[in-house]
């Protein structure tokens, strides 16, 4: 009897375990089965938004040296020494090329000697010139003129008393006219000598300047970009010797579409990046704006000064420019994940009566996680927010807002 009770008890426990296992299996299958087609495919949805958008303009610009010059020789001569070479940083007034100045010194000495001779003819004492009409020749001519005047007066008095002949009186008058002419000639000669001294002084200054120009100097702070002569080479007047560029600041040139003209002004801060420093944005300021629009590109040019204290940026480099304009538009935006792009066509899936409909759209600027839609959608329309790959129009869906889906996920994790 006890044995039968034990068998009955074991059979009951086994049956109970089987029932519980079957119930658990049913619950697991129910939990893992896919939604029925009648219920629809779960999708996360959101609404198309209209926002106020401050437009940023992106353009490609070029960096150039703000100042660059090909330095040429102002006098001819043989290159005696190279004071700088390619890549050297030089200050304004620093020597670049030194020419042999021996012949120029001889010319300077010659001009100095010629000037001293002319001054001596004028009666100068050292560098001091005599006062006008006080030179020895003028004073001598003036004395002779005064003597002739006195002799004529004496001859006239004697002629009144018949003490001199008529010929003597005429001789005295002739001597006075000759002395007067000599005095005027001496004054003219003095003026000519003073003009000659001025010319000699100018020639002396020119010779001195040529001697200075034998040392070719940098016209501004910069870096030697190219050396065009070698030591010992003879260079002629106006022959190029070096090319100098200023690296700080650099000048940025770029073209901005004409519709953004009202939002660009001088002094505005812009941001730029280069391939050499892609992760280091650089700020610059607009310095000039072109007054006209390019008829081919329908854009206008701007210039900006780009700081380059370490010389890391090189002239000729391309730069991606971003300008924050003052223009504010109303833009329609959607999440970037809501756009399905295939074969160059962009599509957004709208949800109407729990069914998908495709809307071809034209995209504008990328705005972080969102993208601007310029055509094809209106604000307030419900769209699929993410997971659009593989969706097709006409599919029945079970819409869930992004916020509701996030809350459901958090509840499931708890």
Describe the structure.
The protein has helices spanning 2-32, 102-122, 136-160, 166-213, 402-413, and strands at residues 41-47, 49-65, 68-72, 77-82, 89-90, 95-99, 215-217, 222-227, 234-235, 240-245, 250-257, 269-274, 282-289, 299-306, 318-335, 339-342, 345-352, 355-367, 370-375, 382-384, 397-401. It has 414 residues and is of the alpha+beta class. The strands form 4 sheets. The protein has a 6-stranded antiparallel barrel with strand order 2-11-14-13-12-15. Strands 3-10-8-5 form a 4-stranded antiparallel sheet, with no helix packed on it. It has a 4-stranded antiparallel sheet with strand order 7-6-4-9. Strand 17 (345-352) and strand 18 (355-367) form a beta hairpin. Helix 2 (102-122) packs antiparallel against helix 4 (166-213) and helix 3 (136-160) runs antiparallel to helix 4 (166-213). The two termini are 52 Å apart.
Secondary structure: elements and pairs:
Blueprint: H1 2-32, E1 41-47, E2 49-65, E3 68-72, E4 77-82, E5 89-90, E6 95-99, H2 102-122, H3 136-160, H4 166-213, E7 215-217, E8 222-227, E9 234-235, E10 240-245, E11 250-257, E12 269-274, E13 282-289, E14 299-306, E15 318-335, E16 339-342, E17 345-352, E18 355-367, E19 370-375, E20 382-384, E21 397-401, H5 402-413
Parallel strand pairs: 1-21
Antiparallel strand pairs: 1-20, 2-11, 2-15, 3-10, 4-6, 4-9, 5-8, 6-7, 8-10, 11-14, 12-13, 12-15, 13-14, 15-19, 16-17, 17-18, 18-19
